[in-house]
Amino acid sequence: MALAREEIEALVKELVEKQVSAAVLEFVRKNEDRAKELAVIERVVRVEEELRALREIESARFEAIQERFEALQKVMDERFQAMGERLEALQREMDKRFQAMGERLEALQREMDTRFEALQREMDKRFEAVQARFEAMDARFVALQREMDKRFEALEKRLGQMQWLIGIWIGLTTVLLGLLKFGG
Predict the structure, then answer these.
(1) How much is the CA Rg of the chain, to the nearest whole Å?
(2) Alpha helices (H) along the chain
(3) CA-CA distance, 49 to 55, in Å (whole number)?
(4) CA separation for the pair 7, 2 (Å, rounded)
């Protein structure tokens, strides 16, 4: 029985080894599939976590970009507003200058009008004085003409008288010569 016990033990041992090794092989094969599944699931979980982290990073980047754009928009709005205010101030300044220039030109125009009117009055006075001088000269020439006419008429009268006298004298001289020649 000792032999049988050893044989039984060897047989049991062999059977147990076969069954255990088959069960271990089956267990390992199943666990390998499960390990592969777990590795795949673990990888999927890691990929999802990475995707979630990437989404959070992208979201944070997008928010940072959005904040940057909003800050830039705010700065640009402030600049445009400042530029608008500067342009309005410049426009007011230009309006003041144009208004002052307009007033200055109006004052200059009034002054020029006054000067031209004074000059016109002075020229009118001078022309009137010249006209009066011409009228006086005309009156003098008319008076001189009348005087000359009177003198020429007097001269003509005298010449007429002298002609008669010369005619009479020549006539008398001729008659006397004729009487002296025929009478004598």
Answers:
(1) 75
(2) 2-183
(3) 10
(4) 8
